[in-house]
Design goal:
The protein folds into three domains: about 55 residues, no CATH class; about 170 residues, P-loop containing nucleotide triphosphate hydrolases (Rossmann fold, 3-Layer(aba) Sandwich); about 130 residues. It contains 18 helices and six strands. Helix 9 links the parallel strand 4 and strand 5. About 55% of the residues lie in helices and about 5% in strands. The radius of gyration is 28 Å and the shape is flat. By secondary structure, the chain is an alpha/beta fold. This is AAA family ATPase.
């Protein structure tokens, strides 16, 4: 076969992570070569297939590596979660890895590397155990709403192929004396029985400062119960806490978490990546993506996603109702005034010359006059005249 060395390399690369369909095609190629009398080439493919079989026998899969040292039973679809004794309401929700499609959250390089290190620890339990090290078993994720905290926790679970026992702690609080503490105990007993990730959402709902004079003695007992159960849970499985209000957490709660990961608001490049991620199937010009990123300075990923939805709607309606990008941004800023920085909103509704100057001078945007003209629906000469007019007005004002 001509170019067989290339085919051989492709087959070897494919069998590094084979699927049944890939293996079937390589077997078909092996049989065809044998039939054509290409015995040496067929033997080479046979060796590649055999090597893949041996590797499969001796090397555990990612899922097996992630679970090798996890004690406990497997959670099934029929597994019953604990309920509140007084109301019979479920205290948790079980989410299985196959129930959601989790893509890696979009963060800056530093945060991305840190989150991947959490997964890598759990994927390499056996290697770590040889040096008497265990992965970090408690992780507190905090940051403003919409920054991707819950999505990150679900992505970790998906990567490790572990079910999530999702608990919204504000739902555990009961008006019955002693019931809240009992609910917490029952939940941790359940999580300690099964192989899972215990995800404690709205963590600040219970883990409040015990010295707060506004809190009654009951909530202080609840926090103590939570701390005791976190201590016990540390020896068994992975626990993730999520909060939008880290300032409300008791200092003793912070000490229970080996990892304390702050999710920041996205920078310019990350905002671009988020806008690009949510844009399909609409194909937006790069200048539009950059302006959306610039306009959403200080915004969260969820707010950028909302703006992209507005943009997609504006570009797919009837031609006579279609709005330009600047009009779309103005509409979004009007309907979401508290979510957009005041400086950006002011520029957006200011004299066009002032807006164009800000866009032209921003190093991150790196706009040409042609870019500005395309966005504003004007030619380059019109943009140039407006910029000149703005410069003259500023000179007069300064003089």
């Amino acid at each position: 076969m001509e170019h067989f060395p290339i085919v051989q390399a492709l087959c070897r690369a494919a069998m590094a992570e084979p699927t049944p369909a890939l293996r079937k095609q390589i077997e078909r190629l092996h049989d065809a070569l044998t039939k054509d009398g290409e015995k040496q080439q067929a033997a080479t493919l046979a060796k590649i297939l055999s090597a893949a079989d041996r590797l499969k026998d001796v090397a555990p899969s990612r899922i097996e590596r992630s679970r090798v040292n996890l004690a406990g039973e497997a959670i099934g679809r029929s597994t019953q979660v604990p309920v509140d004794r007084e109301t019979s309401a479920s205290l948790a929700e079980i989410i299985f890895p196959d129930d959601f499609h989790a893509t890696a959250p979009l963060f800056n390089a530093t945060v991305t590397q840190a989150t991947e290190s959490i997964v890598d620890e759990w994927r390499n339990l056996e290697a770590l155990s040889t040096v008497d090290i265990i992965p970090s078993k408690t992780c507190l994720i905090y940051g403003e709403p919409g920054t991707g905290k819950t999505r990150l926790a679900l992505w970790i679970a998906h990567e490790l192929q572990l079910p999530v026992v999702l608990v919204r702690l504000d739902g555990l609080v009961s008006s019955f004396l002693g019931t809240t503490a009992r609910n917490i105990g029952n939940l941790f007993t359940f999580a300690n029985r099964y192989r899972c990730i215990l995800l404690l959402d709205e963590f600040d709902a219970i883990a409040k400062v015990r010295d707060d004079p506004q809190e009654v003695g009951e909530i202080k007992r609840v926090v103590n119960t939570l701390l005791q159960n976190l201590d016990g849970r540390q020896r068994i499985g992975l626990t993730i806490g999520i909060t939008n209000h880290p300032n409300l957490l008791d200092p003793a709660v912070w000490r229970r978490f080996e990892i304390q990961l702050e999710i920041p608001k996205p920078d310019f490049e990350v905002r671009k990546a988020i806008a690009q991620h949510f844009m399909p199937p609409v194909i937006a010009p790069d200048s539009h993506i950059r302006l959306i990123s610039w306009f959403t300075e200080g915004s969260t990923g969820a707010e950028i996603e909302a703006l992209v939805r507005t943009y997609k709607k504006a570009t797919t309606v009837r031609e006579e109702d279609r709005r330009g990008l600047l009009e779309t941004l103005q509409q979004f800023a009007t309907l979401n005034a508290a979510r957009i920085q005041r400086e950006r909103r002011t520029l957006l509704f200011a004299d066009p010359g002032k807006l164009f100057k800000a866009m032209r001078n921003d190093e991150a945007l790196n706009f040409t006059m042609a870019d500005i003209g395309e966005i504003a629906g004007k030619d380059k000469s019109s943009v140039s005249r407006l910029l000149q007019k703005q410069a003259i007005e500023e000179d007069v004002s300064d003089g």
